[in-house]
Amino acid sequence: MRVVVVAARVSALVVAIWALVSRADCAFVTRTCLGSNLFSYFTVHSAFLLIVALLLAVLHTATGRPELGWLTGLRALATTYTTVSGAVFAVLLANAELFGHLFLVPRSSQVLHFVLPVYALLDFLLAPGRNRLRWATVWVATVFPALWAVYTLVRGRMVGWYPYFFLDPALVGGYRAVGTYALGLSMFILAVAFLTVAATRLPAVPGGPDPGRARRRDRSAGPSRPAGRRRPGARPAAVPEPAARGPEAAAPGTGVTAPAAPAPGPLAAEAGDPSPRNRSIGWGR
């Protein structure tokens, strides 16, 4: 299972890096777009975050180390952002005539908006080893989109360009309309982040370690007790007594009564005779 997960993540890394490099051709090869505009797209930011999360996940999985909580959180954020980016682009593409915009979708853009979001969801849901995340992660997922929105609005007002038409006040009818779009996107991001965090509370996929269960088992086990030591207040184990011979015991098969063994003297008792009295004294020491 580990080999399959590593191979899938390495393949996704190669595809994601290829898509970003190909998408950047307009800025560094053909010079048909500005690099500052290209790297202002939310899709590009989410793809960068997914690449970082997958790279760290590959290193942990390949070395056999359990996934840490912060890495699961990073993967959850990358999954949330790529999913939102792909879903929003799909809605815009399906309603291009309604919005009055023409969308050019090259192969690299198809990979960034459709292939990577699907893989990110499958990797997060099916790959073993993820940790149980806190519900506060849902609110953390809104921090970067809020900062990105502020940056986009400020920069757009300065340079006169916005990466998405619904953030351009001149195209949608003012900042009130922009706020309505932003509120709708915020609710959608919260919903996707909530479902992503809820997925970490489902039973772990077989085939990988469950770090949360291992930590709970270690805490419940408590400190180990050295071998051979009794718990305080525990009674010692009973030692079987040797069969005592009566004053006269019959020899088996003869019918002749054998004389009883002579009682041990004081010297024999002090020399370590294994009588019940001496054993009780020995346990008391």
Description:
It is built from 14 helices and 2 strands, in the order ααααααααααααββαα. The longest helix has 26 residues, at 69-94. With 285 residues, the chain is an all-alpha fold. The protein is globular. A two-stranded antiparallel ribbon has the order 1-2. It has helices at 2-23, 25-28, 35-38, 42-62, 69-94, 96-99, 107-126, 136-140, 143-159, 169-172, 175-199, 211-221, 266-270, 276-284; strands spanning 248-250, 257-259. Residues 205-285 are annotated as: Disordered. Keywords: Membrane, Transmembrane, Transmembrane helix.
State the gist of this model:
By secondary structure, the protein is an all-alpha fold.
Keywords, please?
single chain; 285 residues; mainly alpha; two-stranded antiparallel sheet; 2% strand; disordered C terminus; transmembrane helix; Pr6Pr-like; membrane
SSE blueprint:
Blueprint: H1 2-23, H2 25-28, H3 35-38, H4 42-62, H5 69-94, H6 96-99, H7 107-126, H8 136-140, H9 143-159, H10 169-172, H11 175-199, H12 211-221, E1 248-250, E2 257-259, H13 266-270, H14 276-284
Antiparallel strand pairs: 1-2
Helix pairs in contact: 1-4, 1-7, 4-5, 4-7, 5-7, 5-11
The span between the termini is 58 Å
By secondary-structure content and strand pairing, the structural class works out as: mainly alpha
Strand content: under 5%
Series of H and E elements = HHHHHHHHHHHHEEHH
Quantity of strands, as a count:
2
Helix content: 55-70%
Report the biggest beta sheet as strand number plus sense, adding barrel if it closes: 2 strands, antiparallel
Low-confidence stretches: 212-218, 244-251, 253-258, 264-285
Spatial extent as radius of gyration? 37 Å
Mean pLDDT: 78
